[in-house]
Amino acid sequence: MRLGPYDTSDIEVRSSGGGGMRRAGGIGCGTLVIALLGALVFGIDPMQTIGMVETVQQQTAPPQPASDMSETEVCASSAYADEACAALASLNATWEATFDRNGIAFQRPVLDLFRTGRVDTRGCGSATSAAGPFYCPADKGIYIDTSFYDQLAQMAGTGGDFARLYVIAHEYGHHIQNLTGRSTQVRQAQQRNPSAANRLQVAMELQADCYAGMWAGKNRDRIDRGDLEEGLAAASAIGDDTLQRGAGQRINPENFTHGTSRQRMAALRLGLESNNDSACEVFFEGA
Question: Domain span at residue 93?
């Protein structure tokens, strides 16, 4: 996908670990929406990761020492970082325009890129690389250990850029859910009806996949041949059924948190092919 040049003044990005975070985000008691994109790659059972999420939700992290790295320096630190910064700028521009068109207030997220094995968030406590990329609604931060991209390439069988862009666009989808109030609605519904918790979580993840596709669809003129196939391969590789099968486990829909490979591919394609800003609401119809 041809993202083109970007202006670092249009993004907020930082690097954690070593020197710590450069800026403080909002500290609150929001939940941690973890994308289990890499859990089984690192030998972690999905239910153990879910347990970690519950623990992290109750933690708070002390402010980290300030880092002297600027946005420009962070973005120039690696090819993955440069690509992620370009993606963030595009995501910001695309979704800000969508929110403006619908008369909804918009806030940009912060992208935190790290390669230290663990990260202390501003609003959701500590997490390790084993959790995979995740979004923290309390500080509106997208956290990505860029070494995950190497693992994703092995899982999806492709080293294409669109597979990596799908990851950050999916996490950005959780930011959209946070801004629209959808994530709060889902948490409240899960508390009222615990038996529906997994079904609602799957709906959240499929909607985030759909939002990732919608971003790509709104930038169709920048998509290269083969991008869609790369994205679909990544979505297929991280479906709950595929991950469980790859870990030698029995496929158990009751433990699904993100949807099957088929569902994730369909959600990504739905967003990509839709011209309707509300198309991704379909996952909560009748919920």
Answer: 8-282
